[in-house]
Amino acid sequence: VPAAHSDALLRALLTARPAWHIGGVAPVPDAQPHRSTTRDGGRTP
Description:
Layout: H1 3-15
């Protein structure tokens, strides 16, 4: 989940009815931004 959306997502999960139970939070192993592929299969920078 992008950092910009994490607060809203966490708030939604904590205030949901029925409540969601979060067992833990861990950092993402790959902190580098993920690259997407283009339609022709090439990699974006």
